[in-house]
Each structure stands twice: as C-alpha cells, then as structure tokens.
Design a protein that fits this description.
Elements lengths: L2 H12 L3 E4 L2 H17 L10 E3 H12 L5 E2 L2 H14 L8 H21 L14 H20 L1 E2 L4 H11 L7 E4 L6 H10 L2 E3 L8 E9 H18 L5 E4 L3 H16 L3 E3 L3 E2 L4 H14 L1 E3 H10 L6 H16 L6 E3 H5 L10 H18 L5 H14 L10 H18 L10 H14 L1 E2 L8 E4 L11 E4 L19 H7 L6 H16 L4 E9 L9 H7 L3 E2 L28 E2 L4 H9 L1 H9 L14 H15 L10 H5 L4 H16 L2 H6 L2 H23 L5 E13 L2 E12 L5 E7 L17 H9 L6 E10 L2 E8 L2 H4 L9 H4 L4 H20 L12 H4 L4 H4 L5 H9 L4 H4 L1
Parallel strand pairs: 1-2, 1-5, 3-4, 5-6, 7-16, 7-17, 8-14, 8-15, 9-14, 15-16, 18-20, 21-22
Antiparallel strand pairs: 10-13, 11-12, 19-20, 20-21, 22-23
This protein binds iron/sulfur cluster (SF4).
The site of iron/sulfur cluster has 13 residues, from helix 23, helix 33 and helix 34.
C-alpha cells in the first residue's frame, strides 16, 4: 500500500466505512499501520478500525443473517467428508490412506474453484456431460452435497453463495466497502460486493520514481545484493520499512536467512510461517504421542530425547540422552524403538531415571486404557493434554514467547482434530494421530510479528504490506509470471471459460502484471532482480518486468558480497597444548591413523571419547559383517581340532565348501548376539550365512593357489610401547612364508589400497605399525598385505619382498605385488613417521587439519559438529588454492 492508499483508508474508516482485504495477513498489516499512524499523531487511545479480511467479513455477515442453524465446517471437517466420500469409491487410487487424502484435498480445491468461478456447475444437471476424472469428481460432489444436506452442514466455499441472496433480501443500510490488497477479484466476490451495496477498490499509489532491474551471477549473489541493499537503506534511514518479495520463499528460506543475517543482522522477518510439524515443540509432542502407542525410528527417538521436552528436569534429560549413547556402545541399536523395548534393555535399563520410567509407564497405561476400542475424535483430543501433563511435557526449562505461541498453536491443531467428531464418527488412536500429523503439516506457524523493518513475503502475500522501498527477487522468465497447471478434476474448457488460475498463459500474465503494477505503486523505490545461473540452466529476464522496468543491468560492485565471508569468530592463535600423560591409550592403531589423518580427530576420539553416530540398519551393519568374517577366518586358521594351519591342510580338504559352512554355522551361533536374532528375520540370517559361506569358500580357493605357507598366528595380541605411548594391538594373521620370512595380513571387506600407507602423511598406519613394531625383532619381515575379501574383488594387495617367490608363482612383472616390492628402507621410513605421530599425540598436538581438506578425510570422519570444519571450509579452500602450508604448520 502506498501513502495515498493509507490516506484513503484512514479517511474511509473515519467516515464509518468498512475495509475488506484479500488476506488476513493484509488485514493485520493495515491494522498495524493504522495503529502506528494514531501513535504518530500523539493519541493514546482510539477505536479499533473496521478492517476485515475477506473470509472473516463473509463469515460475520453470514452469521448475522443466517438462521438455519447449519454447522459451518472447518477445513479439517470438510476434508474428512471428502476423504469418506473418496474412500467409498473403492478404486485403486483411493485404497491407501495417503493417496486417498491427496485426492480428497484435490476434490476440495475443485469444489472451491467451482464455487468461486463457475457456481452454475454446482447444479448436478449442469455436469452431466463431464467425462473421466471430472465425472468421478462430479459423482463425489453429489455425495458431498447429500452429506451436507443430511448433516445440516455448510462448506465455507459455499458461504458467499449462500450469503448473496440473504444480502439481497436484507434492505438494512450497510456501510460502504473499500477493498484493499486484491490482485484479482473473483467472480463470486464481485457478486457478493454488488449485493452488499456501495463498494470500490482502494486507489493505487503513485508509480515508483526509482525503478531498477538487476541481474546477479547466481541465487546467492542475488540474495546478497538484496540483503546488502536492505542493510544500507536501514543504515541511511533506521526507521525505513522495507519489503522483500521473493518467489518460493519456503524452499529458499535457509539461503535467504543466511544472506540477511550476514548483511542486516536480525532486522528481518518472514511473513509466511513454516509448517507446524517442523516446529520443535509440536514435532516433539506428536512424536511422543506416537511413541506411547507404537514405535519411532531410532533417529526420531534420538531427536526427541535430545530436545529435553519429555523430561521433568535437565538432569533427567541428560540421563535419557546418556542412556541412548549407552545403548549404542552396547551395540544395541535398532531401526525402530517401541517404548517397551526401550525400557526393557536389561544390560542398561538401570541407567534410566526411575521417576521418569514410572511416569511414562503410567502415561502409557493411561493411553492403553483408551486404545482398546475406537473413540470419538473429541475424546482423543481431550486425552492428549492429559497424557502430556502427566509426563510432564515441555516443563524442564522455561519456555520462550515463541515457544508459548507454538504450544498454543499445537493445542488449536489438536482441537481442530477433535472437531472431526462433528458427524458422530469414532476413530482409532492411530487414525487420530495420522490426522494430527496431517494437520501439523498443513498448519503454517509464524511467531507473532515483532515489526521488523524488513518484511520478506511471497508475491501474493505481499498484498497490503506497507513499505518505503521494495526489492522483488526471482524476476526471471521462467518464474515470473509463475507457471502452473490446470486442475485435473475439472474439465479444461470450463476452467478456460471461467478464467480459473493457470487456465491460459494470458491469465497468468494478467495476474502477474496486476501484482507487478501493485508492487510498483506501493513504494517510491522498487528494485527487481534475477539470477543469471539457476540450478539447471542459464536464466533470462522476465519479459513482464523488462516491459515495466527496462533492461536488467549487472549488479553493481557495491552490492556484491566480499569473496570470502568475514569470520564470525575472532581469530585466536592457540599454540597451547595439553600433553597426554605417557602410558596406555585405548583404540590401538586407530589412534595413530587418526593423528595422521587429522590431529583433532585423534584428540577427540582417543581423549574425549567422541564417536560419530551411524544410523541403525535394518540388516547387519558393515562392521558387524566384518566382525563375523574375521571370526570365521580366525576359526578356520586356528588349527586342530576344528581348523587348519597350513597350505597343505587347505589343499587336502575334501570339501572346502562344507568345511567353511560348518565354521560359518558355528561362528554365527556363537557370535550373533541374542538381540540381533530378535530384531532380524530368520530368513535374512540364513541368507547372510549362505553369503558368508560363499565368500569365504572363494577366498580359500584363492589361497589354495599360493606357494606353500604356514599360519603362524591369528588374532595375535601384542602390547607395544612407542615413544612413551602404550598400545594394545591385535594382528588378524601372520603367515610364515616359504623363505622363512613373515607376512603380516589384515582382512578387509571394504575397498582398500596400499597407497593409503604413502608418506609423508599416510591415511592409514595400521599395517606399517604392525610390521614395524609388533613383530619379534629376530624375525624377517617378508611383506604386509591387505586380504581383500569382497564379492567379485578378492586378492592380496600390499607390499611383499619377493611376491613371485613367496606368494604366487608365475606373477608377472606388471603385477603391483611385483612392481612395488616391500623394502627395508620403506619400513624404516614408516617407523620414523609412526614415532613422530606418537610423539605428536603425546605432546597434545590437536589442530583441526584434515589430510584431504573437506573431501575424503572429513567425509569418513563424522566429527564435523565437534570440530566445526564447515565453518572454516572457505578458509581451507582458499589456503589450499594458494598452496599455503600455514594451517598444516600450526
Ligand atoms: S571432520 Fe575433518 S576436520 Fe573434523 S575432526 Fe574429522 S577429519 Fe578433522
């Protein structure tokens, strides 16, 4: 709204007129502007202005005149009627709950379109020629009308149509109407205003005098230019009110938020909220209710516990998250958790706070008393606050104002689900929770406006918002005018004739033109912008905006963000180190591997016991499968009575597969923990047994082709002392080769390569450590190899002194085992490197300095939230580009 419109609205209200806006958002904006104007006049009290949004206006007028006692349906009630009707269709598309609800909401939309644009088709006879999907919808509409008639119900979409004759029959004098913020007046609205009496639209303000059209390199540059401009406007004029109009606000909210936070601080707010299901309080309450009667995914439960909302005190909350960690440490993870399974873990349940267990068990019992039979939605809605209060929910810490508002909105959502009992239906707890989930998804929540100077809104929502200057983002050819599709349940020709949304490109153009003109008339200065490069292709400027604002020009340098983000923290040269007291450290070789990959990783894992959190899997995890493979091979090579020890033993086996199968069977019986058997289907474990048998048999076939050898040790335990550090190691296997030397073997089921041992900064030091420090000094080292035991990719990979003479005869010179032989010099270099790593660890060297910045090393690490590497990504990349060794040397 420009200044002229504001003056007209003030005058209109003071003369007793009524203002009707297109949306409640516009009504709120006009009311706020009205109050600001009165305050500016120095008044301390004034009457509430007669400003209504369109829906409230129509509802109030209908309530004042209607006497037939019909119940006006709310959206949840109307959708429930459509769902019931769609469900009776018994077609494939409506069998499942999700598609049934989607179809029902499409039918609801189609009904609303007919009411607003083409009410003549609400008569059944007018739709007799409709075909296919439109005919199916027509049948549903007949059933819907019948339900409303028999239940004495009224759809809000029908309300304006019902009101028109009431107004025509009412001869009382009515105040004149001034319409504000309507980009398009729908046919039904026009008829209603005509029957009301005198009305007209608020005049648009003077067209903007400063109009600019910018083109930015990409979306980030576009958001940055807009945010920098906003920041500058506010610096020049702190009382200025700015409006940013953006397409797809919900999809790009995060990117915009970052750009504005960086350049304007918290001086902005989005006028459009986010789904209530994404608001912590509402999501947690819904998850808790689901958990009481069913199961949650492990990550859902983990998140729920981490909110602290289901504990009575912060201590209780800490105990619950600690319990979850303990379950992990005991490898008791599950993909899904019922409350009963969570409480019943014998090895750890004593860690749960007893009062919490008592309360949540009581709450579960309370719910169980109701779930035996279907209840009225109203009964379920009344039960929800009781369940939450008993726990209690959201009581551990004081709530902020936004949280109180979210809690209030949650209660309204629960009540709205309770209102589904309007037709006497009874539903199960599960159905009630599904409906509640959908309601939370569909309800947008925004905390009360704090009147931030920068308002960010979508093009349609911006109607009625006031501003001194406007920036319109996303003015490219594909986005503006926006493209949409016609409604699939209504005949195309009827949509075209009635001018329904997206029925023709011309209609889209006219609506976008009307919005653009309204924006141009809403402030003295208006900027448009678009990003030249979008996700898929080069974008071109919107023809509509070019027509009104001229050609786009490149964003000027003063609106460009500096290349690297200024650090959010103050740099501090931390050269202090906390030495590790000489002695034992747990983790074996992984400590020194981590020290080489990234000193902070070694510090965090070995000294802080930090761990990444891998999601539970439906089957065995890679590490569980790896352990089983190790156990089977250990049993096979353990020697008599059940195992074998030499190459000759292997070659002399009559039936290798049967031999392996027996070992696999025994190993699974011994090693598979009871809780895994409990949660995994028997057939799956049988298949796993077959897979393992096949894999190991193939491996033994491979080993049978070797030059004779003897297995000296398997799972060999060693304790070594290295520069003051004591490490416990376990070597998978050590073979004695034909020449009497020893071969160190490590079984791997993943993709590994000896290049990971390359100096100066190895990615893995496990085998070099074993070879260099864990063998008897009197023994001769013949080589170190990975035994890669993977389906379709088996073999030794590593460094061997003379592979052709000790491993496989007939190996060619190009074979990597021959081409890159093991040498004593290599071993000495590895020893030096490993000793240096041990000393670094002991000295407390713990810099965040990944071996391959950001890429491989960090991807496999999982400690990003602790080391906050992503905050330094730009810096690391810049250092990497310039070849700087600064970070590495710190
Ligand atoms: S995520 Fe990267 S930087 Fe962080 S600790 Fe792990 S390896 Fe180091």
């Amino acid at each position: 709204m420009g200044a002229l419109a504001a003056i007209e609205i003030d005058k209109w209200l003071s003369e007793g007129g009524l203002v009707v806006t297109a949306s409640d958002r516009a009504a709120r904006a006009l009311v706020a502007a009205f109050h600001r104007a009165r305050q500016a006049e120095g008044l301390t009290a004034w009457p509430t202005p007669n400003i209504f949004d369109w829906k409230s206006f129509a509802r109030t007028a209908w309530n004042e005149r209607s006497a037939d006692g019909r119940l006006l349906l709310n959206p949840a009630q109307e959708e429930a009627l459509w769902v019931g009707i769609a469900g009776q269709d018994r077609s494939l598309a409506t069998l499942l709950e999700g598609p049934r609800h989607r179809l029902a909401s499409m039918a609801m939309e189609a009904h609303e379109l007919l009411c607003s644009y083409a009410p003549q088709f609400l008569r059944n006879t007018a739709r007799s020629a409709w075909h296919q999907d439109a005919a199916a919808f027509s049948g549903w509409l007949v059933a819907f009308d019948e339900s409303c008639r028999s239940g004495n119900l009224l759809s809000p979409s029908r309300l304006p149509l019902e009101l028109i004759p009431l107004l025509e029959a009412d001869s009382a004098k009515r105040p004149p109407l001034l319409l504000a913020g309507f980009d398009r007046i729908l046919p039904v609205q026009r008829s209603l205003f005509d029957s009301w009496g005198q009305w007209h639209e608020a005049a648009q303000g003077e067209p903007a005098t400063k109009i600019h059209f910018h083109v930015a390199a990409d979306a980030q540059a576009e958001f940055a230019a807009c945010a920098i401009w906003c920041g500058r406007q506010l610096a020049d004029s702190p009382k200025a009110r700015l409006l940013v109009v953006a397409q797809s606000v919900s999809a790009r909210r995060g990117e915009m938020e970052r750009a504005f936070l960086r350049h304007t601080g918290p001086a902005f707010e989005f006028s459009l909220g986010i789904p209530l299901s994404q608001v912590t309080l509402a999501r947690a309450a819904h998850l808790l209710l689901r958990w009481l009667g069913g199961s949650l995914l492990e990550q859902e439960l983990d998140w729920l516990l981490s909110t602290g909302l289901i504990a009575a005190t912060p201590q209780e909350s800490a105990a619950l998250t600690a319990y979850m960690r303990t379950l992990r440490r005991f490898s008791l993870e599950r993909t899904q958790w019922t409350l009963t399974a969570f409480l019943g873990q014998r090895c750890a349940s004593e860690l749960l706070p007893a009062p919490w267990v008592e309360r949540i068990t009581a709450v579960q019992r309370l719910l169980a008393g109701f779930t035996r039979r279907p209840q009225s939605p109203l009964d379920w809605a009344e039960l929800v606050p009781r369940l939450l209060d008993e726990l209690p929910f959201a009581c551990a810490s004081p709530l902020s104002s936004a949280e109180y508002q979210a809690l209030h909105r949650w209660q309204l959502a629960v009540e709205s689900c309770g209102s589904l009992g309007f037709d006497g239906r009874r539903i199960s707890w599960k159905e009630f929770l599904s409906q509640l989930g959908r309601t939370l998804d569909e309800t947008l929540f925004a905390p009360e406006s704090h009147n931030a100077p920068i308002q960010i809104a979508g093009p349609a929502e911006s109607a009625g918002l006031t501003a001194d200057a406007v920036w319109f983002l996303g003015a490219d050819e594909d986005s503006w005018p926006p493209r949409g599709t016609m409604h699939p349940l209504l005949p195309i020709e009827i949509q075209r004739e009635a001018g329904m949304p997206h029925a023709t490109p011309q209609l889209d153009w006219e609506l976008a033109e009307s919005i653009t003109n309204r924006i141009l008339a809403s402030a003295a200065e208006v900027h448009f912008s678009f990003a030249k490069q979008n996700e898929t292709a080069d974008a071109r400027p919107s023809l509509l905006v070019t027509k009104l604002a001229g050609d786009a020009e490149d964003v000027t340098p003063d609106l460009m963000a500096p290349a690297a983000q200024p650090p959010l923290t103050v740099p501090f040269q931390d050269s202090s180190r906390i030495p590790f007291p000489p002695g034992k450290v747990s983790g074996g070789s992984s400590v020194l591997t981590a020290q080489s990959q990234c000193p902070f990783k070694a510090f965090a894992t070995a000294r802080l016991a930090a761990q990444d959190w891998k999601p539970a899997e439906a089957g065995l995890t890679a590490s569980q499968r790896g352990s089983l493979l190790h156990a089977v091979l250990h049993a096979i090579w353990a020697g008599p009575p059940d195992g074998i020890r030499t190459h000759a033993d292997l070659v002399n086996l009559n039936d290798r597969k049967a031999f392996v199968a027996a070992h696999v069977q025994r190993t699974l019986a011994r090693e598979l923990r009871p809780h895994l058997r409990e949660v995994m289907p028997r057939r799956y474990l049988e298949l796993e047994e077959m897979r393992l048998t096949e894999l190991v048999t193939q491996w033994l076939e491979y080993e049978a082709a070797r030059i004779e050898f003897e297995v000296a040790e398997t799972e060999a335990k060693r304790t070594i002392h290295l520069a003051g550090l004591t490490l416990d190691l376990r070597l998978d296997r050590v073979d004695r080769l034909k020449d009497g030397s020893q071969l160190v073997i490590d079984y791997k089921s993943g993709n590994v390569s000896p290049s990971s041992w390359d100096l100066p900064r190895p990615d893995d030091v496990q085998l070099p450590l074993y070879a260099g420090f864990a063998l008897d000094p009197d023994e001769v080292l013949g080589g170190l190899v990975f035994a890669k035991i993977r389906a379709g990719d088996q073999g030794f990979s590593g460094r061997v002194g003379d592979a052709a003479a000790t491993l496989f005869s007939g190996l060619k010179g190009y074979n990597p085992l021959v081409r890159y032989p093991f040498t004593v010099e290599q071993l000495l270099d590895w020893r030096d490197c490993i000793e240096r790593l041990a000393k670094d660890f002991l000295s407390g060297k713990a810099e965040v300095n990944p071996r391959d910045p950001i890429e491989e090393t960090c991807k496999r690490c999982g400690l990003q939230t602790l080391c906050r590497i992503h905050e330094n990504e730009a810096q690391l990349e810049a250092d990497d580009d310039s070849g700087s060794e600064e970070i590495a040397d710190e």
